[in-house]
Specification:
- Belongs to the PurH family.
- Its EC number is 2.1.2.3, 3.5.4.10.
- This protein is of the alpha/beta class.
- It has helices at 15-24, 33-41, 49-53, 68-75, 81-90, 105-110, 115-120, 125-135, 149-159, 164-193, 244-259, 283-293, 311-318, 332-341, 394-405, 430-441, 460-467, 482-492; strands at residues 4-9, 28-31, 47-48, 97-101, 141-143, 207-212, 222-226, 234-238, 265-270, 273-279, 301-305, 322-327, 346-350, 358-363, 366-371, 384-386, 412-416, 419-424, 449-452, 472-475, 495-498.
- A six-stranded mixed sheet has the order 8-13-12-11-9-10, with helices on both faces.
- Strand 17 (412-416) and strand 18 (419-424) form a beta hairpin.
- Helix 12 runs parallel beside helix 13 (311-318), helix 13 packs parallel to helix 14 (332-341) and helix 17 (460-467) packs parallel to helix 18 (482-492).
- The chain is elongated, with a radius of gyration of 31 Å.
Amino acid sequence: MKRRALISVADKSGALELGQTLVALGWEILSSSGTAKMFRDAGVPVVEVSDLTKFPHILGGRVKTLHPLVFGGILARRDLEADVKDMQDHGIAGIDMVAVNLYPFEKTARSGAVLDALIENIDIGGVALIRAAAKNYRYVAVMTDPADYAPVLEELKAEGDVTLETRRRLALRAFDATARYDATIGDGLRRELGEKPGEDSVTLSLVRTQELRYGENPHQRAGVYLPPLADSPVTQLAGKELSYNNLLDLDAAMRATAMLQSDVGAVVIKHTTPCGMAIGKTVAEAYDRAFACDSLSAFGGVVGVTRHIDLETAGAISKHFTEVLLCPSIDDAALKLLTEKRKNLRVMTWKGGRVFDKQMVSTWCGLLMQDDELAPLPDQKKGHWIGAPRPDLWDDLVLAWKVAAVSKSNAVAMVKDGEAVGIGMGFCSRVFAVEFAARQAGERGQGAVMASDAFFPFPDGVEKAAAAGIAAIIQPGGSVRDEEVAARAQELGVSMFISGHRTFRH
């Protein structure tokens, strides 16, 4: 008995060659609708599914292949006596290969189609055929990607059959394909209907859009993965390919510049934490001030700015070795200057936006997920002062709070006249963070302000800040020793604003 292949594809790439080769190898082709027409027009013998089932396509083509003569032929276990008897009793012939790809829901969703068009591009029969064939992979080869055709045909020619190992591999690819398809439909309909994903169960369908050279270290494989309907929020205009570490630092730069949007601001990121952050009258001034905070650490960093880059700013940035530059836009002349002076500099534009609204971290205990929101800005009406209020220092206090909020915990930031002068981040002890920031600030710490991303558990951090010349501190409060810390700040003449919001960043 001839072996049979059911070929029904929305993407017809390679399908004609597949059918022609199978017929030449003695197979019979089953097909429906447009795929069957393609074969007939090319002179390839084909049996219409409706001729096999003796049942016409109905409901405008919504029901074509959903029939026992089709699914019985795919799902039958050829070595099980009861299945073989059912096949004989009902005149069911086996189907040994299924080549199916699905209605282009993703393409339709990306085109901005309305709800009715989205719904009509949800494939039903195709998904059922794929799942049936994949379930019965011991007897059926299933192909969901035109890239599978050539290797399978080569194996057929060489071996006379598709090996069990290949059928297993194809089955797993098929289940991945239908899972991704269903997740894309859920995402697309959710967007169109304005519904948010549930909290108790999260379905993630991710496609690798870029293979990276390696991860944080050369022994780790890495890539960039996006949901099928998502696009990268950044565009690369120049420079080398982004690395895994570049992308981590770029994320920090995006968060920092998002917090600086109300000002002409700049940030220098190193190892996912700021080593400089400032505002200025021009982007070039803001960049120079940010760079000055820790010019040693800024070497090879990632720079983010909040405004358009002109030739002056490009000239300032080009003086130093920078890995990545993030900006909302850039002059052609400025881009030309940067690419000539720093050929490897990766220049990225970002108009805002992000891929996910949840922050996800994979741990050995499982996937941690939290709302990905920037902390609310300090508000003098919602917090309270300890000691003499210093509204004259408020702008610097808010900037210091922003710097601390995007720095690795434990973190403190010292700011004076719109620029960070000392940043202590990533310390296990808050006292060590203050000491580091004070040492970095030096004389610039006199009359500066300081922000802490969490409360002071003891007065010692405040004492170190006062010794460095800090005039005012902003911190969330919440320690059991808040009264003791507050009393010590008043004794030292340091004004303190309690914001009520912790900004840990682990």
